[in-house]
Amino acid sequence: MTQPIIEFRNVVKKYDDHVVLNGVDLEIDAGKFYTLLGPSGSGKTTILRLISGFLDASSGDILFDGKRINDVPAEKRQVNTVFQNYALFPSMNVYENVAFGMTLRGVAPAQIKTKVTEMLELVKLKGFEEREIDELSGGQQQRVAIARALANDPKVLLLDEPLSALDYKLRKEMQYELRAIQQRLGITFIFVTHDQEEALAMSDWIFVINDGEVVQNGDPIDIYDEPINHFVADFIGEANIIPGTMVADNLVHFNGQDFKNVDGGMRPNEPVEVVIRPEDVDIVSVEAGAVTVRIDTVSFRGDYFEITASDMDHHEWQIQSTNGVEEGSRVGVTFDPEDIHIMRLNETEEDFDARLEAYDEE
Amino acid sequence: MKKQSLLMKFYLIVVFLLMYLPIFYLILFAFNRGDYMTSFTGFSLRHFATMFADTRLMGILLNTFIIALLSSLVATLVGTFGALGIYLLKRRNLQNVFLGLNNILMVSPDVIIGASFLILFTMAGLALGFGSVLIAHIAFSIPIVVLLVLPKLNEMDSALIRAAQDLGARPYQVLSYVILPYIWTGIMAGFFMTITYSLDDFAVTFFVTGNGFTTLSVEIYARARQGIDLSINALSALMFLVSLVLVIIYYFIANHKQKGSGKHKRATVNQQLGGGVQ
């Protein structure tokens, strides 16, 4: 097993009595694209600042390449940051901004020039060297900020919600480009965002953070398909979350009915939460449906319809369908056994992983 | 609506006339051929000639400018670092305490400041003269600089400092590459503002000038008391002109923000700073 490039061991950060990070453990491997995903105030930016050295941990160890770096000042760490509002130096032009780190290190001018040119090409800003920062659009400033951070040859690049100020289309474009840059350079990226779509689209690995703890980590598909609890299921995408009981392995009871599913490893009749993603719900005739619902609202979203409906038990259902239905009509909904995901209440990530593993082996 | 705006214009004109009339009246008689301010008998520059021929007056003029420049330089330096100190204080209420102490010096009457300096210098056994005036001028100039530099610091995105550190800048490099260029307009505004304050200060200076040393405002006061001499008018005209120039410079520095920097041209430091951060 290779050594992780960054490791957190039971890291706690608190201000007076206010706990921001509550014993975080995480491992970051070299060369991958990581995302710290969580709502604002969850502590994800705090983790980033602990890595960059702008904050000190209250307790616990932060390791970089196996060495403890808690006491290494920010300017001596081999990480660079792309800031949320870019933080470009307004008194310098594009060239000087990108060259800043190398200028400080006393790199030879010719070498700086080569590197700056290379970096500006990488972010598609060739020929922008002499531009002033205030002449650039938000998207261009973003690219300069990325070039400036990468020009320092960091081992790890930290990105603090860098796309949040861009409009939707530009944001999508930058997601692809960031991913492409990461794969081309092979540098570890740690990306902080509260946008689950962004996280799912770009990452190799996602850490879902809430209330100063890593709630779940895994690759995007795992996180989306197998959320560990109500919070993750709700935060990552839309979800129908229905209380139920696990009658036996592969059999769950909710909405007054038993459904076949593919989960197990729980106590008989254990109370659970059932998650069904809106896109997994199919609208069929009342006779063919597993559950009968009344359509409440239908909203057109371009590539699909977003439909809300309610069943006889007054549970609300969110459904995504490529075909529209009439508001107020009664229809049946159905879903496949593998679309039903079961979440135990208050299960830790360790237990969750162990259960999945044990269950998969059977 | 139109009537109202006419009234407003009229009001403004009257107010400004009232404020500037005495000054222009004074300046007008600087060009009088006669020796008195009772009647304007013709245009002449002879009072200016008398003034420039007065070596004592010219010496005082020189002293005044030296004091102004030196005190402004020192005050700008001290004030800038003072503002930095207040800015970098982590505790908000401590920041407010220092800012409050700073502002008290700004609003407290010059007479009080002058009198307290006189007491201080006397107690310390310091001879009154160039040194005492310089120290007093530095002292009342520092709060002005702090007050002009601090807003620039607060306006600066603190992420700029982190970005510089992130790229490997040591504290002094953060200061010289990032912070100073950003607050440069504030520093320059402070410098020119304190020059004008120092040039025309009377009350504080009056207390701390000794027998041998005097500045222009104190001298003008002394001469005006003795009787009418139109070379004082000439001197006032000159001072007014200098102040005007300084105010204009100050205005241009302070208002650079509103002026767009030219596209694609290598802008001056001030212009870049005027652009601000996004």
UniProtKB/TrEMBL annotation, chain B:
It is a multi-pass membrane protein. The chain crosses the membrane at residues 12-31, 60-89, 101-128, 134-153, 174-196, 234-253. One of its GO terms (biological process) is transmembrane transport. It is found in: Cell membrane. GO terms for cellular component: plasma membrane. Signal peptide: none annotated. It comes from the Bacteria. This is ABC transmembrane type-1 domain-containing protein.
